[in-house]
Amino acid sequence: MARGSGDGEGVAVTAKVTRRLVPYLFLCYIVNYLDRFNISFAALEMKADLGLSDAAYGVGAAMFFAGYVTLEVPSNLILVRVGARRWMARIMITWGVLSCGMALVTTPASFYLVRLLLGVAEAGFFPGMIFYLTYWIPARERARVLALFLTSTALAGVVGAPVSAALLRMHGVAGLAGWQWLFLVEGLPAVALGVTTFFCLPDRPSDARWLDGPERVWLEGRLAMERRALQRLPRLSLWQTLTHRRVWHLCLLYFSIIISFYGVAFWLPQIVRTWSGLSSAAASLVSAVPYLVASVSMVVIARHSDRVGERRRHVAFTAFAAAAALVLGALLRQPLAAFCALCVAAAGIWSTLGPFWSLPTVFLSGTAAAGGIALINSVGNVGGLVGPTLMGVLKQRTEAFQSGLLVLAGTLLVAGVLGLSVSEGEPQA
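The chain above was modelled as a monomer; its predicted structure follows.
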């Protein structure tokens, strides 16, 4: 087969896979992040009802990650054994039930407990998705496809803002508070998607009836060729992967990004309301704007990263841009200007994700990839404990968000430096 013909066939097959899988995975991950972020919208009313201080809310929001991080690696290793379809279905059904259960919390203690259990239920979902895509998407197109998939983390805010605003207005219906309706309604789609995932999602290209014979042959051959190329590199066992210097470098880089990612996400509606003086529902709606800007930016950055075949600088420079924007947001006194800076910061933070998640898939495969990706996500998500907690403590002490935003900017500067120094060469076992 001629080179041009093979390339053309590869583009067509990859495009077909992307059209069939990514929209569904995209929907699943929108629902996943909606269930993570809805606490930020519910907090506009829930804090007062439960008697939560700013610091207590920050701790409760972060408790999710205590459960999530603990079971992340074991969950992803189970996924490899039982298959993505079964395990991701289990994850979605249990997290949906627990997300609905957030409507039943009545005290700070019950708030902490359900958030912890929600993290346990969700553990392994994101790295499982990343690992699953390595079965379907060739390495050359991976950053672009990952970015399309990861835009769901931003679009969850775009979708969640107006939906949450509407649900908050249901206060008093059937004797429930608006924030209780928010959790009940937004948790149910995860249960429904868990059921459809079990029956509809193929584990591998060989199971995909919507690919014809030549398409399956090309895709499985291309991915097998990439796996053989990885096998010719110094081979890493699971234990070597979990203790590898480059894997831990990526862990620290992702940790630095995630501190600001969740530091912004869990506090964004409250920042908007404080700066603008808007009502809870209006602040929820306005909070969609930074997420919308971020969803466009991350696709543009990932496309450029794929086109030039470079990852490190794309991670670093977007982190530096976000850090500068957070500093401006903290220093500017005009609310509209500060909000625009916050939009730029969100664009920078979210735009690191596509290029970043292409880095570990370059040198990890098989069980090592499952364990390594899960470890990176697990350690990185400790930042989800740190970011919201820091923002809550600093907000309570200073009665303002400026100091918290400056701390988040500092972590992004660290991320930029780590991004520039990460190696993209062959691993040394």
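Residues 3-50 form the longest helix (48 residues).
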